[in-house]
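Hi V.,

Quick status before I head out on leave. The structure for the redesign project is tokenized and pasted below; the design run finished overnight.
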């Protein structure tokens, strides 16, 4: 399920290489998406990373035909050249476009629906 030993994932992840901008305050880092789920995002780590770890981030992902996903997230970990974010779905505007994007990359549609149901119960 994961390329990192000891890592447990509660949600199915899809490896998708897309551009992502990480915004915090007046700072913007242009990165690449490593993987994504309904509840989390992993990106590569910028060469210069001077973010405030306890402050929220906005991740802007160009999802092609699904449009631009704007996800609000908190940094959960920095390791092995990647950043791991927990996504906060405050208004739910991105859930449907995210579902559409993930449905092309997660082979088991029942797993994706179960993930969305888990997310709704949190």
């Amino acid at each position: 399920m994961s390329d990192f030993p000891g890592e447990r994932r509660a949600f199915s992840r899809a490896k998708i290489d897309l551009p992502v901008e990480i915004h915090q305050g007046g700072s913007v880092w242009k990165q690449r998406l490593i993987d994504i789920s309904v509840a989390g995002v992993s990106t590569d780590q910028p060469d210069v990373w001077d973010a405030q770890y306890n402050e929220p981030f906005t991740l802007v992902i160009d999802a092609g035909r699904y449009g631009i996903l704007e996800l609000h997230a908190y940094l959960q970990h920095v390791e092995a050249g990647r950043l791991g974010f927990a996504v906060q779905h405050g208004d739910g505007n991105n859930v449907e476009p995210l579902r559409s994007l993930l449905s092309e990359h997660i082979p088991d549609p029942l797993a994706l629906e179960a993930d969305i149901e888990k997310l709704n119960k949190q």
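Above is the designed sequence. Strands lie at 14-15, 19-24, 27-36, 40-44, 57-62, 68-79, 82-88.

G. will cover questions while I'm gone.

Best,
W.
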